């Protein structure tokens, strides 16, 4: 498809279709489900996470971290596509796959950042700089997405095991990123000091 045809094609698609006005939506494959369905909640939360990672990326200047976040955003589109599929019809469609190497990539980045940081000797409060705080918010959204996916698993709904594994590792990455950003910015970590009296 030429650039001109692509432009014409996308201009022909309306942003509003009115098909969801009664509280239902379609999975990839055409199956209609309520918008409150746990599968919709799961991929909607992944979409929220992807958007928030965009916020984090916009707040940082470290080129390697920005490139890593871009890669993560691409993988989250893959996760979202997997979650948005009707599992009974998915084998008939070409949906991108998550791979074990995607998790290996996150682990290598976690290890790389960890080598630059002092050992953690206390619980850390989010804060100190907007980039750090937003990385923590992204981490919390990631954990919520993971909980949605585990809920699907508990309800015997099909979900790729790698999706849960990826989200679990991604939340670890985002925590480490928050610490690493503090290191790059020269911002001291804020220890949690529990009240004892």
TrEMBL record:
What the entry lists under Pfam families is as follows:
Cob_adeno_trans (PF01923)
Q: Which GO terms describe its molecular function?
A: ATP binding; corrinoid adenosyltransferase activity
The answer to whether the entry has keyword Oxidoreductase is no
List the catalysed reactions: 2 cob(II)yrinate a,c diamide + reduced [electron-transfer flavoprotein] + 2 ATP = 2 adenosylcob(III)yrinate a,c-diamide + 2 triphosphate + oxidized [electron-transfer flavoprotein] + 3 H(+); 2 cob(II)alamin + reduced [electron-transfer flavoprotein] + 2 ATP = 2 adenosylcob(III)alamin + 2 triphosphate + oxidized [electron-transfer flavoprotein] + 3 H(+)
The UniProt keyword set, sorted, is: ATP-binding, Cobalamin biosynthesis, Nucleotide-binding, Transferase
Q: What GO terms describe the biological role, i.e. biological process, of this protein? A: cobalamin biosynthetic process
EC numbers listed for it are: 2.5.1.17
Q: Do you know which InterPro entries this protein is assigned to?
A: CblAdoTrfase-like, CblAdoTrfase-like_sf, PduO-typ
Its pathway is: Cofactor biosynthesis; adenosylcobalamin biosynthesis; adenosylcobalamin from cob(II)yrinate a,c-diamide: step 2/7
Where does the Cobalamin adenosyltransferase-like domain lie? 15-181
Question: What's the superkingdom here?
Answer: Bacteria
Would the keyword Nucleotide-binding be found if you checked this record's keyword annotation?
yes
Q: Which PANTHER family match?
A: CORRINOID ADENOSYLTRANSFERASE, CORRINOID ADENOSYLTRANSFERASE MMAB
Q: Which NCBIfam families match?
A: PduO_Nterm
Q: How does it assemble?
A: Homotrimer.
Q: Which family does it belong to?
A: Belongs to the Cob(I)alamin adenosyltransferase family.
Q: What is this protein called?
A: Corrinoid adenosyltransferase
Q: Which organism encodes this protein?
A: Hydrobacter penzbergensis
């Amino acid at each position: 498809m030429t650039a001109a045809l692509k432009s014409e094609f996308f201009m022909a698609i309306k942003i509003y279709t009115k098909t969801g006005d009664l509280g239902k939506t379609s999975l990839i494959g055409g199956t209609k489900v309520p918008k409150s369905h746990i599968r919709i909640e799961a991929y909607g939360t992944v979409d929220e996470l992807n958007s928030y990672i965009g916020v984090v990326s916009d707040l940082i200047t470290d080129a390697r971290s920005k490139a890593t976040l871009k890669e993560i955003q691409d993988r989250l589109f893959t996760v979202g596509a997997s979650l948005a599929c009707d599992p009974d019809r998915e084998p008939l469609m070409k949906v991108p796959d998550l791979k074990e190497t995607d998790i290996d990539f996150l682990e290598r980045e976690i290890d790389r950042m960890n080598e630059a940081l002092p050992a953690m000797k206390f619980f850390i409060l989010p804060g100190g700089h907007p980039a750090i705080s937003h990385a923590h918010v992204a981490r919390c959204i990631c954990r919520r997405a993971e909980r949605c996916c585990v809920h699907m698993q508990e309800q015997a709904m099909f979900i790729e095991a790698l999706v849960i594994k990826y989200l679990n590792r991604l939340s670890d990455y985002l925590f480490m990123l928050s610490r690493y950003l503090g290191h790059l910015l020269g911002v001291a970590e804020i220890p949690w000091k529990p009240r004892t009296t």
